[in-house]
Amino acid sequence: MRSTLALNAGCPERLSRQVQTELDRRRQRRPGNVVLIGHSRGGILARAIAARIGSDASHLILLGSPIGAIARMEHFGRGRIPDAPAASSVGDASNRARRFLDPDCNVPECGCPFPADLQRPLSAQTKVVSIFSNEDPIVPAWACQIPGGHNLEVTGTHSGLAFNNAVYKALAGVFAKI
Hints:
The chain has 178 residues and is α/β, with parallel strands linked by helices. It has a single domain (12-176), classed as 3-Layer(aba) Sandwich (Rossmann fold). Helix content is 42%, strand content 14%. It has seven helices and four strands; from the N terminus they run αβαβαααβαβα. It has a four-stranded parallel beta sheet, with helices on both faces. β1 (34-39), α2 (41-53) and β2 (57-63) form a beta-alpha-beta unit. The two termini are 22 Å apart.
């Protein structure tokens, strides 16, 4: 299923709940484990959802998502990702969009569940695959690497990861081993 997000901008709690509501609705019709796939900021949302649904998330697939950097931060939202030429501009644009779309959201200070969900351990049954590119000018490779996860490097651009044949070949290799 698609995420249902027309625009992945604004309050991360609102966005992740919107996706999870649709996921829950579909899971009522077709129960079972799910594979969550998120690209860039979508991977951050998917990570929070995976923590919420526990062992029902069989896999968390991240494409160019800075979850590795977030996992290393003491507090969600503190600081910037170094060594990423475009990350500062993208982060600034994201914050402006959040203030415009959700003026009452001041994550993480707002006290919403999202930062805690993002830091909550995943189920031991959830397999994590992070795919990244050293050519990515927005999210550096080190920021995507997940301790204990299956980290795969491909070539390509940040936005191109969602359409990159090498990504799908790498995923096929991962799922073939299951």
